[in-house]
Amino acid sequence: MGEHVMPTYHRADEVFVAGDGAVLRTAEGREFLDFLGGIAVSALGHAHPVLVEALRDQVGRALHVSNLYHHPLAEPVAAMLAEATGLDTVFFCNSGAEAVETALKIARKHHHLRGEAGRTGFAALCGGFHGRTAGALSVTHKPEYRAPFGPLLEGVTFVQPEDSIGLETALAQRPAALILEPIQGEGGIRALSADFLRLARAACDATGTVLIHDEVQSGCGRTGTFLAAQAAGVQPDLVTLAKPLAAGLPIGVVVARPELRRVLAPGDHGSTFGGGPLACRAALVLLQALRDGLLDDVRARGAQLQRGLTGLAAEFDAITEVRGRGLMLGLQIPNKAAELHGALHARGLLANCTAGDVVRFLPPFVISEAQVATGLDRIHDALTTLSDD
Ligand code: PLP
Fold it and tell me: Ligand 1 pocket test: which of 217, 238, 241, 362 has the largest number of ligand atoms within 8 Å of its C-beta?
């Protein structure tokens, strides 16, 4: 391809021009089974007829009106998000990192309003990933990601997942917020235990720390509940959502509990494109589909894929763990994840390699039973070709 796009990603050679459900097609007509969903984005797969129709209709009405005026779609999306999360109010932006930035700002201003303006630090988890903008990068753990871009936000303490004493020590320093992913995505599909999530909630309550759950990757139904943390019965003060929410269009949101709804006043924060009609129209389609039974499909297909992967782990010693829930799953395969990823790609299955030793699967929520079975066959076939060393 050309040379005018900055080389910030390693891209495969294929040029994808179209798709249908969980299948993507190249310019030459080669078909790939999409077990990656554009990295957890394409919840409705490709060219979903209801989404296509809704967006066609919306393009013919208004693409953008600015946040200086109302349009009829933002409030219904916000109301559906409030209901699905059990929280209250929504700030709209355009990406996961922007949602995280917003959550960090809300946390700091919350303390500012309460007369604790010095309460500006953050606690975050080792292995956590929250995005590449300055604030989000500051609470992202991987030192290589942060090192070239300092100085970042001061006062960030990283705690090991499941280290309850480390967490209590960090919160005793009275940070503005604790941010965590209930299931770490980029960190290798690592689920926090329900006990640790509950302990984090209790420790935040005890210290007045704002609890931010970053569910940009795990949220919007991907794990079989609308929020992954709902499986543990834990509610955050703020939750960030993005990737699948508009089924392929850029969107990010922070959903806040009632006490935080007025923390950001006019002039404190904003987003030119945030909550525009097109992204909101797409989000309405996704949220309605989840209400109409898509969550059941995620659970069924997730269980099928997890069963299949667990069977492969029993057959192939190279696999050390099957991780995740719903349609957010990973195979830990030390020293061989990149090789397996390559073998899958060669067999027409899109996945990706994360945290060095995990092959990650984030398929569309609409993937069929037959497609999951075909994907498992391809994974089996690819595993038989791995080198012995
Ligand atoms: N938070 C989490 C948990 C993510 O997985 C990601 C992206 O992978 C982000 C934040 C950043 O989202 P974006 O790439 O949309 O800025």
Answer: 217
